[in-house]
Amino acid sequence: MSYPGVLLRCGGAVFRNTPAPCHALHTLLWVATLVYLEGAPGGWALSGVRMNVSKIILGVLEMLASIGSTHVMAAGDPLIEQDPVVLRFVERAIPWHPDSSFRVVADDRRQTPSGSYRIVRVSRTCDNKILTGEPSVVIDEVTGLAYLGSVGELPFQQSGAAPRSLRSFLEGFLPEVLQQNMNMRVRVSWDEPEGSTSGAIIPFNLMVETGYGEFAKPTAVTSDGSYLIMGAGMPLDGDPVAIRRALFGESDFVVWDHNGGDKTSVEIVEFSDLECPACKAKWSMVKRVLEANSGAVRHGMVSFPLTSIHPWAFRASSATWCIGELDGKQLIPFKELFYDLQREMEVRLVTQTSVDFVAGQGLDETLFRGCYLRNASLAAVHSQLALGHQVGVNATPTYFVNGWMIQMPGEEWFPDLIARLARGEEP
User: Fold this and answer.
1) What CATH code is carried by the domain that includes residue 309?
2) Pairing relation of β-strands 101-112 and 115-125?
């Protein structure tokens, strides 16, 4: 969850997050399970931390009430320096929307034995009330990496508690709280990218179990144990748009289903879930754009199954990968078939529906069965999930148009955006 937008306060914890078009409830639950709440009667004892259901509910209600709110500078508020580097980074990292304006509303520097970090809150206003909000970016001043994600305070080293290591705390706290409250099975992995430099922020991965294996969700913690960040780091002085486009170009897990050629001026990479109603709702518009710009736009699919709320999505993602391996031109018809059957589809029906499609299109059924739900396709879907989290996907559908993140494309501006990018212009 990499681009916060609205505010959630529960007890002594603060989380900022953008509600997902298709899985807002999933996002709310994810955030709610990670907050630290003061003990109260009726709470759960989790790793010495008491979590109270009523407080979570109140926090969720507060979050919903805050959607669309913006920070207003009151008379007498201190002037905050408008850091142009931070503003540019945020503008190019979070979901793009027309006529957005940005300003820094808070900039707090913290010192740790490993160096300093900053928590910068940026106000974004635009016509879309859900995207209007205050994203937080946490900047490691040692490594120069910026982490744009859900930022939450941690209950590390509570007053009166015995000293404990940060790593052992996270290894116990995160798996337990996520299992208890979301039935989400995770383990903490401290594997860092080769050549990474230690600084004031410690990156790690939450290895999330899907029922078919696990994938890596980039996460980080400040070295003083104060803040948890759900998101990957990028160079503050880099360009998130260019970084993401390069990742897609190098990835083996973007399946190009509408190939206008390698020299096309516009590339749309779609992260979607065949069980997602919002994906189905937006597809007709995206398809019209593809047809209107035939030969000029290249479209690629990346499966992003939301396994915690969509029971048959992972199986459909495996089938999607296998059909892409057989004939990429059949991906769009396959996707549309599952969209048509979305309301009636069940876990037990995915296999036969997919096999029937393969036979109907004259594809090799033996090759399909040798791929579907086998190790290669399972690993591919997990790699697609990991790719999505690496580039900041936390909602389906999410589109990247030449590296620009688009979460909620609008009929009134999305086709024009494609046209401008095709001419080589900036959004």
Assistant:
1) 3.40.30.10
2) antiparallel
Phi, psi dihedral angles at 161 (to 5 degrees): -85, 155
Asked if 228 contacts 219 with a C-beta cutoff of 8 angstroms, the reply is yes
In a domain, 1, yes or no: no
Cα(316)–Cα(280) distance, rounded to whole angstroms?
14
Q: How does pLDDT run across 216-269, given as a tens digit for each residue? A: 999 999 999 999 999 999 999 999 999 999 999 999 999 988 665 566 789 999
Which of 235, 250, 282 is where one domain is finished? 235
Distance CA 338, CA 140 (A): 44
pLDDT digits (tens, 9 = 90+) for 15-39: 344 334 665 445 545 444 444 332 3
Q: For CA atoms 196, 197, 203, 207, give the dihedral sign.
A: positive
| 279 and 347 housed in the same domain | yes
**Residues 45-102 pLDDT 10s:** 333 333 333 344 334 333 433 333 333 444 445 578 999 999 999 999 999 999 999 9
Q: Which residues contact 189 (CB under 8 A, 6 or more apart)?
A: 204, 205, 206, 207, 216
CA neighbor of 80 nearest in space, from 122, 117, 111, 115:
122
Strand partners, 45: 50
233, 266 in Cβ contact below 8 A? no
Residues in Cβ contact with 305 at an 8 Å cutoff, skipping those fewer than 6 apart: 210, 273, 274, 275, 313, 314, 316, 317, 381, 385
CA dist 109 and 120 (Å) reads: 9
